[in-house]
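Problem: given the chain below (281 residues), write out its structure.
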Amino acid sequence: MTASPQGHRSDAEELITSHMPLVGHIVRETMGRVPSHVSRDDLTSAGLTALVLAAQAYDATRAVPFDRYAATRVRGAILDELRSIDWASRSVRRRARDLAETRAALAGALGRTPTTEEVAQTAGMTVDEVAANDDDVARAQVLSLQGSATTTIEELVPHTEPSPEDVYEHAERLTYLREAIAELPERLRKVVEDYFFAERPMAEIAAELGVTDSRISQMRAEALALLKDGLNHALDPALVQPVGKAGGVANRRREAYFAAVASRHAEGLRRSMPVRLNAAG
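Solution.
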């Protein structure tokens, strides 16, 4: 018996919602292997779009678990996004040229290879800044589209199966993700729900909200950033980056959002307590 379109859509929405943390897991591991200027939000957006497409195309009658199928699609989309990136940003290239000229001048004057401290002092940079730029340039060379004999772009995206700890973290993040989506500002929540779950075209959402397509794209990025910070605040606060001035409007709004997510989570735990006690009894 063929499932109704509405039933298929409901199944797809459930698959998307329950596997969004999978995208975060793959992106998080990938970010540790790429230059610092690569945008986490861009990789996340590519991964989430692939997850939506995977949920739409998934055939449950085949002997392939959805998480494995989705992971393959998400990795492929992230690889495509990585291939489209200029691995060395303009600022990295400019600093690399300046540092190369500084090193050449110092080598000529000193008659030897200058130390990193000497290069930093001459260039007006800190030792950490010089080291970070050198690291980005080195990774940019290794991660060029042509690849290398030892590292290919495919090796950037993790292929390991999740451990029991990962499964637990997945479930915990899923709970927080649902709560974080529910506490998003109304218009941002609508963009997330309409774009990722209802699969509405960006132009259609823009027309309904009375804004441009580019504004919807910005709102989607804002929502993803807020969701990421909301999850990190709950699960790994050290990853939350400051935004704007301390005590400023942006920070106060963000703190209020974090508090709302925490309150919703606590309320969910309270509601589940009687069930757990009864089950234990």
